[in-house]
Amino acid sequence: MKMMTCHSFISPNHNYYYHHQNFYFVALGRGTSMAAASASPTPVLRSELKSVEPVEQDLQTALNFVSSPRHRDLVFVVNPQGANGRTGKDWKKLLPFLRSRLGNDYNICESFTTGPRHAIDITREAIREGAEAVIAVGGDGTIYEVVNGFFCDGKPVASNNKENLKATALGVIPLGTGSDFARTFGWSNDPYAAVERVAKGMRSRVDVGVITGPTGDQNYFINVADIHLSAKAGFYASKYKKFGNLCYVIGALQAFMSHYNQDFRIKVNEGEWEFCPQVTALCVGNAKFFGGGMKITPNADPRSGNLSVVILQHFKWYDFILNLHKIYSGTHLKVKNVSSRSVNSIEVEDISGRGGVYIQSDGEHLGFLPKKICVLPSAIEMIC
């Protein structure tokens, strides 16, 4: 079981330990310290632990406190290494304001990721423990992992407390390099505004995309999944994060050096196979932006129940350069050899014989074709 550091567990006039996720947390105003682990599922008075000096006890106050509903957890999943370490530094600056704004109503729980896929495990555990929300603090890569944590073995993760009727929500505090998902909703990169959204607690159901491979392996995404050139560009861009959003343009140019347009076949909404020649890139958007602000799927809406597919064909490197400003503005759908359609599902196979066609989502390399991509309408609740 993972450990989360919780803050702002406040009991008026008294200091109590509360058994939470196999640890005791002592509430001393704001901020907590951790004491000895215990198997007891009930709150205990401070004097019952030998390692702590006894304090004044008021049994009736303690009973009243125990019988009242405890605050639910807000679990903040922080990638401290995001944006070349800037995410961790910005989080430290934000935390005092966040505690003061949210600490009276929720337990504030920090959980720092230590490597790839760690956020997935943290999210699953938080949902099973009945958290109010799991909030991704970082860039689109952190959001990607948190979204995947909402699912396990092809099913949504559920709370172990069957009496908990309120689903755990997804929240976002954009502190990463790209923060493209936030752009779809018109959110700025202001983390203080994001905290205010959490405080208001407004929720909305959003769709999620699921990518399935030939062996049945599944990956979920909430932003954009892309195939071939753009996916390879994302792979290279990850090596240039120190240049900020410029890393995506550098990655695209490097990807073009070894790029060949390839013939695909696609199947839309379980229909017939269609020949799709000389594909440069195929993008499937649940949201609108990728690559540090490129509005690649401008018709996408994460509350529509559909995915937006944009296909670029027969592009040369100079076509990409000449039309880059249109891709950023979302006006590229009128460009020659660019097509768009709305789908519930799409299957994509490479029939060129070259192989090695990349697929990725939000900087996460997800292998190679063939793949099937479907929408899960209204799959999770999101704080908006």
Secondary-structure topology with pairs:
Elements: E1 5-7, E2 16-20, E3 23-27, E4 32-35, E5 44-45, H1 59-67, E6 73-78, H2 86-102, E7 107-112, H3 118-128, E8 133-138, H4 140-149, E9 151-152, E10 155-156, E11 169-174, H5 180-184, H6 191-200, E12 203-212, E13 218-221, E14 224-228, H7 229-237, H8 246-257, E15 262-268, E16 273-285, E17 307-313, H9 317-329, E18 338-343, E19 345-350, E20 358-361, E21 364-368, E22 371-383
Helix pairs in contact: 2-6, 3-4, 7-8
Quick summary of this structure?
The protein has nine helices and 22 strands.
Tell me the distance between the termini: 30 Å
Q: Give the low-pLDDT segments.
A: 5-68
How many domain regions? 2
Q: What amount of the residues lies in strands?
A: 25-35%
Helix content: 25-40%
Number of helices: 9
Major sheet details: 11 strands, antiparallel
- What average pLDDT do the residues reach? 83
> Which CATH-level-2 architecture of the largest domain?
Sandwich
Class from helix and strand fractions: alpha+beta
- Radius of gyration from CA coordinates: 23 Å
- Strand segment tally: 22
Shape: globular
CATH class of the largest domain: Mainly Beta
Oligomer: single chain
- CATH T-level topology of the largest domain: Tumour Suppressor Smad4
Question: What this model shows, in words?
Answer:
With 384 residues, this protein is an alpha+beta fold. It is globular and about 60 Å long. The chain has two domains: 72-201, Probable inorganic polyphosphate/atp-NAD kinase, domain 1 (Rossmann fold, 3-Layer(aba) Sandwich); 218-377, Tumour Suppressor Smad4 (Sandwich), CATH 2.60.200. Strand 9 (151-152) and strand 10 form a beta hairpin. It starts with a strand and ends with a strand. The strands form four sheets. Strands 12, 13, 14, 15, 16, 17, 18, 19, 20, 21 and 22 form an eleven-stranded antiparallel β-sheet that branches. A five-stranded mixed β-sheet has the order 1-7-6-8-11, with helices on both faces. Strands 4-3-2-5 form a four-stranded antiparallel β-sheet, with no helix packed on it. It is built from nine helices and 22 strands. It has helices at 59-67, 86-102, 118-128, 140-149, 180-184, 191-200, 229-237, 246-257, 317-329, and strands spanning 5-7, 16-20, 23-27, 32-35, 44-45, 73-78, 107-112, 133-138, 151-152, 155-156, 169-174, 203-212, 218-221, 224-228, 262-268, 273-285, 307-313, 338-343, 345-350, 358-361, 364-368, 371-383. It is 25% helix and 33% strand. Residues 69-215 form the DAGKc domain. Pfam families: DAGK_cat, YegS_C. One of its GO terms (cellular component) is membrane.
